[in-house]
């Protein structure tokens, strides 16, 4: 049947909603009928993939429409076309069948497809005898979706997509397209509005900003050599393993000679050995997924599946992770499902409707960041994000995700005034859709990747952040760890006080032990503490220059002796003086100064002691691993506690937060005999006064007389009983 002229006109101007019904080969009573749009051609011959000529096509419309009957059944085709004495070949994307199958349709529709990152987006595959790229995107309310890119001169008329109406996905296989081709989606909304070109939500590589196209990609790495590392973490309980995290902003840890970002390979050469030397167990990167705005530090993420082009191609990040693992270092990445920016090329009103976000700003707008909020209750959106978490674990072998701004997800009234939010069905403020989503993420990653763990930045007292996400406890979120924000706030407030006043604020240190085991905590001194006018960590300390350094050394000693895993933001290990800025490298030249090198040496030794001494890490998350020795000596500003390991080992941690030496201080100790001094933050090679206990003390009758250096923390490990 001859199509209606309006249908042909729509086909030629790229507005036909079902181009596969008219284009390509179709079986008919007279044989296989072929229709093709070949702009610029005057003659065309249809050929099989092996080059066999199947028949000439006639030019039936000067705008490039060809028709004709060919030999053989419908099959993938290419056309040898010519004009003005020149000849070239054109591959026919409309001669190929769909790639997605009924099982994909079913799982996508149910929201339970845990391999969607293999199905949606752009994938270099072999299909029906041809190499090419399969494009698939979810846009259920669109009238038409076309792929535009380098391979079709960004002409939307060339590759309109096939609509799978049951699931709202549009797909097309385009032969002869390879790795690294730039592309976007041209989406026509249901009302006929042509939307700004959209980057691929599932795109696995991106152009360097300010360009915003997605790039066709392939699996980034096949030759992984990190089995030993991954097997180790799959077998241990991370709560009882030493975890000391070095938080890094990849764009400013170090720059090259041109003050530009290091690529992943250059970063691997410098950062991995440094972290090994410093004794950290993990690197945690601020978000490395593609984002349009540098000063967002990556927290305004748009390309959730694409490592940022700022640091080179995606395979570079895979090599970095592999190299870190081979060196025994884990890699965590910050993950941002709490919000997304509304840039025109991104997810906002993706198909002309509030697809990924809520339509009502009381649910779908984040006042803190002027961004959109994911509609966690929509199964396709939840599936998109769950798949993204799984993607980083599988494709890049990352060891865990630190999930940003969890508190903002849990409460509908977060940062909102009365009338600016909508209660849940029971009239409460809890966002149960977000809760269910977070539980689904944790069940998925823990279920599929032994050794993987998640960390929540959650600043409220939500019950059960790190409790297993079992069915009979809906509020339990299933995270492995939670940042201890209370520890950070209370202890830094204490350290900022003049020592003469600290006696009146003793509970700033002691209070945190009331809840230290309510969750599995990470003690995080993160990037948030050294930006936006807050100054550097050393400059938060009280006193003159010497006292600031002494206070910071004492603080680090207290922190590494306190129950909980450790996290320190880059630069603070050597007492960076300037406030951190994403626009410049850390001030590495400071290490030429003894005070800064001393601080770095201390952090190195603290990490070593923490890793090698089970009493300091084996019961980080369990109350049985902690015992107060001195809790109420506010007058002397002394704190002392015991850390236990399950194997019987124990370490005493003692902090003197005054500038006075406490000589012959009676320290209760539960075991008789020799206690070896394994850390003294006042040691001269750290920049201290060198006062201490000559390497050990002896406990008799339940106590030892010890010297407590000024503004210092010491650690004493019990090594042998009295003779």
Main sheet, how many strands, which sense, barrel? 8 strands, parallel, barrel
Radius of gyration: 31 Å
How far apart are the termini?
A: 104 Å
Number of strands: 34
What's the average pLDDT? 95
Strand order of the largest sheet: 15-16-19-22-23-24-25-26
Domain Glycosyl hydrolase family 13 catalytic: 247-619
Organism: Novosphingobium humi
Pfam family, one: Alpha-amylase
Active site: 404, 457
Outline the structure in words.
- With 723 residues, this protein is of the alpha+beta class.
- The longest helix has 19 residues, at 594-612.
- The mean pLDDT is 95.
Keywords, please?
glycosyltransferase, 26% strand, 8-stranded parallel barrel, 723 residues, 1,4-alpha-glucan branching enzyme GlgB, 7-stranded antiparallel sheet, elongated, alpha+beta, 34 strands, 13 helices
In short:
This protein is α+β, with helices and mostly antiparallel strands.
How are the SSEs placed, and which strands pair?
Blueprint: H1 5-13, E1 24-28, E2 31-37, E3 43-47, E4 53-61, E5 65-70, E6 78-83, E7 86-91, H2 102-110, E8 121-127, E9 130-138, E10 142-149, E11 162-164, E12 169-175, E13 182-189, E14 214-215, H3 227-235, E15 244-248, H4 264-278, E16 282-285, E17 289-290, E18 303-307, H5 314-326, E19 330-335, H6 361-364, E20 365-366, E21 371-372, H7 379-395, E22 400-403, H8 406-410, H9 432-448, E23 453-456, E24 481-483, H10 485-495, H11 507-510, E25 521-525, H12 545-561, E26 565-569, H13 594-612, E27 626-633, E28 638-644, E29 650-656, E30 662-668, E31 673-680, E32 696-699, E33 703-708, E34 712-720
Parallel strand pairs: 15-16, 15-26, 16-19, 19-22, 22-23, 23-24, 24-25, 25-26
Antiparallel strand pairs: 1-2, 2-5, 3-4, 3-6, 4-5, 6-7, 8-9, 9-12, 10-13, 11-12, 13-14, 17-18, 20-21, 27-28, 28-29, 29-34, 30-33, 31-32, 31-34
Helix pairs in contact: 4-5, 7-9, 12-13
């Amino acid at each position: 049947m001859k199509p209606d002229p309006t249908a042909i006109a729509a086909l030629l101007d790229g507005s036909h909603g079902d181009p596969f019904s008219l284009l390509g080969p179709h079986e008919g009573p007279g044989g296989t009928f072929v229709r093709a749009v070949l702009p610029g051609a005057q003659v065309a011959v249809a050929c099989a993939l092996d080059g066999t000529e199947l028949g000439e096509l006639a030019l039936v419309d000067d705008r490039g429409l060809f028709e004709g009957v060919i030999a053989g059944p419908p099959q993938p085709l290419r056309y040898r076309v010519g004009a003005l004495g020149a000849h070239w070949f054109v591959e026919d994307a409309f001669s190929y069948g769909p790639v997605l199958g009924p099982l994909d349709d079913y799982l996508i529709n149910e929201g339970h497809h845990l391999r969607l990152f293999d199905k949606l987006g752009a994938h270099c595959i072999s299909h029906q005898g041809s190499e090419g790229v399969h494009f698939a995107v979810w846009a259920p309310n669109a009238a038409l979706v076309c792929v535009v890119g380098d391979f079709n001169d960004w002409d939307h008329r060339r590759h309109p997509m096939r609509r799978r109406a049951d699931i709202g996905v549009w797909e097309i296989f385009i032969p002869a397209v390879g790795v690294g081709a730039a592309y976007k989606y041209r989406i026509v909304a249901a009302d006929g509005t042509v939307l700004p070109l959209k980057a691929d939500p599932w795109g696995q590589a991106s152009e360097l900003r300010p360009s915003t196209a997605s790039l066709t990609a392939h699996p980034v790495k096949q030759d992984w050599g990190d089995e030993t590392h991954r097997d180790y973490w799959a077998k241990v309980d991370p709560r009882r393993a030493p975890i000391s995290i070095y938080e890094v902003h990849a764009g400013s840890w170090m720059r090259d000679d041109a003050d530009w970002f290091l690529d992943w390979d250059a970063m691997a050469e410098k950062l991995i050995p440094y972290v090994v030397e410093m004794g950290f167990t993990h690197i945690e990167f601020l978000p490395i997924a593609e984002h349009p705005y540098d000063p967002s530090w990556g927290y305004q993420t748009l390309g959730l599946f694409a490592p940022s082009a700022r640091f080179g191609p995606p395979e570079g990040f895979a090599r970095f992770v592999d190299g870190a693992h081979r060196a025994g270092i884990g890699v965590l990445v910050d993950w941002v499902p709490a919000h997304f920016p509304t840039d025109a090329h991104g997810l906002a009103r993706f198909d002309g409707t509030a697809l990924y976000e809520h339509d009502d700003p009381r649910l779908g707008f984040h006042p803190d960041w002027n961004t959109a909020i994911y509609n966690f209750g929509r199964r396709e959106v939840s599936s998109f994000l769950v798949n993204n978490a799984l993607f980083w674990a599988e494709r890049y072998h990352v060891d865990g995700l630190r999930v940003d701004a969890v508190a903002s997800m849990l409460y509908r009234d977060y940062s909102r005034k009365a009338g600016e939010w909508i209660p849940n069905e029971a009239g409460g403020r809890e966002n149960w859709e977000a809760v269910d989503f977070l539980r689904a993420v944790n069940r998925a990653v823990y279920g599929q990747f032994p050794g993987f763990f998640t960390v929540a930045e959650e600043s409220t007292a939500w019950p059960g952040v790190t409790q297993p996400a079992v069915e009979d406890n809906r509020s339990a979120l299933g995270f492995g760890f939670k940042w201890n924000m209370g520890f950070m706030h209370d202890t830094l407030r204490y350290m900022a006080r003049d020592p003469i006043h600290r006696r009146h604020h003793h509970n700033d240190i002691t209070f945190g032990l009331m809840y230290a085991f309510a969750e599995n905590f990470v003690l995080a001194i993160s990037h948030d503490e050294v930006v936006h006018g807050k100054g550097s960590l050393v400059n938060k300390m009280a006193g003159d220059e010497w006292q600031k350094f002494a206070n910071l050394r004492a603080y680090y000693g207290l922190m590494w002796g306190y129950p909980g895993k450790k996290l320190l933001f880059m630069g603070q290990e050597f007492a960076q003086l300037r406030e951190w800025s994403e626009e410049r490298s850390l001030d590495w030249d400071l290490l030429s100064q003894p005070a800064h090198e001393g601080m770095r040496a201390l952090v190195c030794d603290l990490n070593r002691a923490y890793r090698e001494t089970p009493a300091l890490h084996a019961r980080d998350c369990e109350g049985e691993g902690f015992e107060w020795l001195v809790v109420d000596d506010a007058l002397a500003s002394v704190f002392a506690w015991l850390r236990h390991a399950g194997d019987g080992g124990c370490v005493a941690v003692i902090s003197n937060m005054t500038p006075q030496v406490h000589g012959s201080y009676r320290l209760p100790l539960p075991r008789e005999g020799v206690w070896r001094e394994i850390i003294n933050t006042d040691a001269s090679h750290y920049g201290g006064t060198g006062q201490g206990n000559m390497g050990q003390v002896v406990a008799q009758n339940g106590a030892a007389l010890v010297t407590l250096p000024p503004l210092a923390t010491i650690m004493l490990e019990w090594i042998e009983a009295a003779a």
